[in-house]
Known about the structure:
Mean pLDDT: 94
Distance between the termini: 39 Å
Number of strands: 30
Number of helices: 11
Amino acid sequence: MIIPVILAGGTGTRLWPLSRQGYPKQFIALLDEHLSLFQQTLVRAAAVTTAEPMVICNESNRFMVAEQLLLLKIKAQILLEPCGRNTAPAIALAALHAQKIYPDQPVALWIMPSDQTIESLEVLSQAVADAARLALAGRLVTFGVQPMHAETGYGYIQAGDILANSRAQQIAKFVEKPSAAKAADYIAAGNYYWNSGMFVLAPQVYVNELQQHAADMLAATQIAYENRQEDADFVRFDQALFSQVRSESIDYAVMERTNQSAMVVLDTHWSDVGSWSAVADELPKDASHNISIGDVMLEDCEDCLVRADSRLVAAVGLKNIVVVETADAVLITDKDSSQAVKTIVTRLKQKGREEINNHTRVYRPWGWYESICHSERFQVKRIQVNPGQRLSLQMHYHRAEHWVVVSGTAEITRGDKVEMLTEDQSTYITLGIKHRLTNPGKIPLEIIEVQTGSYLGEDDIVRFDDQYGRG
Length: 471
């Protein structure tokens, strides 16, 4: 049995300002009008194997994962990391969980990032099947992608001898992201492949290799797993325990040290969609090789990607440029420099800027809100509550709120009183009173909220009851 394990915990910093910590790239419809990269990964996995997938994600993104699974009508085991600890511990959690739910079955875990694109399902299916046979025989298998050009944004794998009775190869070494000159040398050598970041392995084999090469990591991960909490939707791990796990990638912790590694060649178009230039490579272009997304007007431009999310963007006389506009930030970069966007994100983080965390539209398990206007003592928000959803029963110490229903039906709880409001009706939530907003209807509820008070931060919330398990 081949079990897909989808790693969905990345932040996609090189795709800022569209990708943010609160809404990372894998959950955005970057390459498809309807499906996010995560959903495309789910669809691809379902075409290769019918087994129920596991998804490993940050706890803060759990409802995004659950909603996007629901839209595809796909059931999955969702494992929540309370903090990021890189790929080796995440895969260890998957291995331990697979041993629990499939105790007596031969299982191969197909580990994959949630933000890649792979062209040929036929080639992928054959490669995964070959890797699974090797994994069940005790190998830790990765996939090397036939390189198309001298890419400096990927790690490389140097292939060794062909394994007996197999189309797989031994791994001579793993190589970090190279300089342009080194990458050209690798292409010329002919035995270097892009490191896909995908693996196929048997749970017990991986546990055994961790015991040999990273025993402290395995022990700490086992403690966190043994103290897990499971409910109908999620498998949760204690933050204090999981934070004790050493952070390291599977490449460093195991693959570079084991003598059981192997590589299967993936000979089809592949991308990790890791930069804006990589996004541009995947999208259809006009006669001037431009890509326009949103309300965009181009004049005398060539080889450009221009994306507008909230307003008209016009560009004149540009060549090989990426422009990405969101409601609160604009990125302009040469395509050849787009890998360096992460340095801007680092600087924003150092300055404590909110633009790295959330968009002006912030998604919550019940829907979303966006800030329309903000000043020192007032803020105006647009709020949408999905059908059948409700906010927590809460109270604020520092702000009062005025709610005006724009569309839909609102069930308003204020103290001990519950009332129904419809379009054009309003209510006032005084400072310090318990309140809740619910959408009992079948269409989205939209309201305008005006906050007034001495402090308007999102942390001025005291929750008394919350169906989503938030404190």
